[in-house]
């Protein structure tokens, strides 16, 4: 039977992989929309936000203190929210098929919910 620490590490790896998968899929989308001036401008913003979310999560996993962990998770949440905005814009502007855009937006919202809950839990446990 797995102990609590092993379960937490497993969940952390799953979340890390989801964030990595999101960044990879965004890279693929950017190759599609990067053909126009507007697409290039939005692509730059989206790639920075979506890849930063995963990188900041990895930093949070190696945090030096609970406060550092919370701060880095809040950065992840901020980057995910920004990614959601750019994905909504791309979808609404028809730079990406609606169905594909909605899948991305849903994944980003799910990841945001998980991270937000983690921030709340970490803050509660800090007190």
Structural description of this entry:
It is built from four helices and no strands. It is mainly α. It has one domain: de novo design (two linked rop proteins). Helix 1 (4-33) runs antiparallel to helix 2, helix 1 packs antiparallel against helix 4 (98-126) and helix 3 (66-92) packs antiparallel against helix 4 (98-126). The longest helix has 30 residues, at 4-33. The mean pLDDT is 91.
Helix content: over 70%
Text of the CATH class = Mainly Alpha
Provide a count of the helices. Answer: 4
> Which geometry do the CA atoms define?
elongated
Q: Structural class per helix/strand content?
A: mainly alpha
Average pLDDT, all residues = 91
Gyration radius (Cα, Å) is 16 Å
Task: Please render the helix and strand layout as text.
Layout: H1 4-33, H2 37-61, H3 66-92, H4 98-126
Q: What's the gist of this structure?
A:
The protein is mostly helical.
Entry keywords:
127 residues; mainly alpha; de novo design (two linked rop proteins); 4 helices
């Amino acid at each position: 039977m797995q102990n609590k620490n092993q379960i937490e590490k497993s969940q952390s790896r799953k979340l890390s992989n989801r964030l990595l998968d999101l960044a990879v899929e965004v890279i693929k989308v950017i190759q599609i929309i990067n053909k126009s001036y507007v697409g290039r401008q939005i692509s730059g913003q989206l790639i920075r936000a979506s890849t930063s979310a995963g990188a900041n999560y990895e930093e949070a996993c190696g945090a030096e203190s609970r406060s550092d962990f919370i701060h880095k998770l809040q950065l992840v949440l901020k980057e995910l929210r920004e990614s959601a905005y750019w994905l909504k814009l791309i979808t609404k502007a028809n730079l990406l098929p609606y169905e594909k855009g909605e899948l991305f937006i849903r994944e980003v919202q799910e990841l945001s919910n998980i991270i937000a809950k983690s921030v709340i839990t970490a803050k509660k446990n800090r007190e």
